[in-house]
Specification:
3 domains; Rossmann fold; single chain; binds 5-phosphoarabinonic acid; about 500 residues; 19 helices; five-stranded parallel beta sheet; five-stranded mixed beta sheet; alpha/beta
Length: about 500
């Protein structure tokens, strides 16, 4: 079986020169830190207690209980058989992985054409915004009797998901009758949160209502596609086993001790050298092909929420070797590369101009597919394009983009997928997860929390008068109101 390949050539000075590319000296400077990071990450991941407590349990997800997987696969088939449409409600890590899977592993135009769905339901994603337009259009047009709803929220408290579910629940109740709860499935924390409370109460009334699956302990939202995304895969008919097998193969590949042979560590390390030593704080992910655009969006969240941190990490180790990761409030670092999601060839007529001639402050990561499940030939005879395969045009376009970047000394690398199957897609996701965890180690930050998103949430709660908001937060908001000087509004 072919393997995913990682071509890091154009990250190095041998391709893009020593001002923008990594030299032997740069490598030598960062390598000891990489060895230290490797040692620590491996130690945390191999200790089950640390793994769960520090939110690294995602690293174990490729090895899930086969019986649970078989149960979810069957459940997905049952739902798919019975319903015309399924709405998934969730945001952030409770949405982006599912959307990435939908676009990468289901046929393009899946919702539009029945034969492409192989008898399975249409899929809609909602609750990932507070925009009233999309949800109202959807509910006006779907038949509540023929719609199944999956609510995903680890905390069970997220405003977007909660607000959407309140509406969808009412719509179902009105349209499907008193047993509407049998058309609702919840994926949430096994113990905590308002969604969990609701699930328990509904289940006590009727076990077929508000069926549910727990989110595993120690798996954070953005690292949870192989946990909270599984029911979605089953409903659309993707073999979960194949996705997990790909993730497992990548986990093995990324467990090698030799850093220069370990793709995830290499990606994290080289990106960090480019960021810190060569002033490349921006990373552009550019898969060549529409199907992987949502996977690039998923990676944007993974990188931004994981490594975009204000404070450095302070590690406290107790007598049993268990770690606690604290914010080191004395060390403000404001760190983390800024991710941008694009796709070739579409964005060659857009951001590529800036990639080539704008500030040389970016590193580009291409994803290239070697084989497509369908191909086309350009028709006609009187043109140089005539008779050429689309897949070849796309591959040449990627190579050409790489060449153009190298000519302008712009660092880039290419991930080469033999084809876009559940196996390789699972492997790709796991690679990015491990690379991001390693990058977090190198930056010495906590890559598994997201304290920065609390600010906007607290302000919203304050404005919307959410009960129980701590007095100190309300006082802080009152003390620092948004300033609106009239002359700056024109
Ligand atoms: O990665 C994360 O933890 C976040 O992006 C969450 O997934 C997101 O905020 C949604 O949270 P929840 O699943 O609790 O509704």
């Amino acid at each position: 079986m072919k393997e995913i390949k990682f071509d890091f050539n154009n990250f190095f000075s041998s391709s893009v020169g020593s001002i923008h590319g990594i030299t032997r000296k740069d490598w030598g400077k960062f390598f000891p830190a990489a060895q230290k990071a490797q040692k620590h990450l491996v130690a945390v991941i191999t200790n089950p207690q640390n793994r769960v407590a520090l939110s690294l349990e995602w690293a174990n997800l490729p090895d899930q209980d086969k019986k649970v997987i078989a149960y979810i696969q069957k459940l997905g088939d049952q739902i798919a058989e019975k319903y015309e449409s399924v709405i998934f409600l969730g945001i952030g890590g409770s949405y982006l992985g599912l959307k990435a899977a939908q676009d990468a592993l289901c046929a393009p135009y899946y919702n539009e054409f029945a034969p492409l769905r192989h008898g399975r339901p249409r899929i809609y994603f909602e609750g990932n915004n507070l925009d009233p337009e999309t949800l109202s259009a959807l509910l006006k047009n779907l038949n509540p009797r023929k719609t199944f709803v999956v609510v995903i929220s680890k905390s069970g408290e997220t405003t977007e998901t909660k607000a959407a579910f309140a509406l969808v629940e009412l719509w179902l109740k009105k349209g499907a009758g008193k047993n509407y709860g049998r058309q609702v499935f919840c994926i949430t924390d096994p113990k905590n949160g308002t969604l969990r409370k609701k699930v328990d109460a509904e289940q006590a009334r009727d076990v077929l209502s508000f069926r549910n699956l727990p989110l595993l302990k120690g798996v954070g939202g953005r690292y949870s596609e192989f946990n909270m995304g599984l029911l979605h895969l089953a409903i659309v008919g993707v073999k979960i086993d194949s996705v997990l097998a790909g993730a497992k193969a990548m986990a093995q590949k990324c467990s090698g001790r030799e850093i220069s042979r370990n793709p995830a560590y290499m990606y994290g390390l080289l990106s960090t050298i480019l960021y810190k030593q060569k002033n490349k704080p921006i990373t552009i992910l550019m898969p060549f092909g529409e199907e992987l655009k949502s996977t690039a969006d998923w990676y944007c969240q993974l990188l931004a929420e994981s490594t975009g941190k204000k404070y450095s990490r302070r590690i406290k180790v107790n007598a049993n070797g268990l770690e606690e990761w604290l914010k080191d409030e004395n060390r403000v670092v404001n760190t983390g590369r800024t991710p941008i999601s694009t796709r070739g060839t579409n964005d060659l007529h857009s951001v590529q101009q800036n990639n080539i001639e704008g500030e040389n402050d970016k590193a580009v990561t291409f994803i290239r597919l070697e084989k497509f499940s369908h191909d086309l030939k350009v028709s006609g005879t009187n043109d140089f394009l005539a008779g050429k395969d689309y897949s070849r045009l796309l591959c040449v376009a990627q190579e050409a983009t790489e060449w153009a970047l190298v000519r302008e000394a712009r660092p880039n690398c290419t991930i080469i997928l033999p084809e876009l199957t559940p196996f390789y897609w699972g492997a790709l996701l796991f690679f990015f997860e491990m690379a991001t965890a390693f990058e977090g180690e190198l930056l010495n930050i906590n890559a598994f929390d997201q304290p920065g998103v609390e600010g906007y949430k607290n302000y919203m709660y304050y404005k919307l008068r959410k009960p129980g908001l701590p007095a100190a937060i309300s006082a802080d908001i009152r003390k620092h109101p948004l300033k609106k000087i009239a002359r700056y509004i024109i």
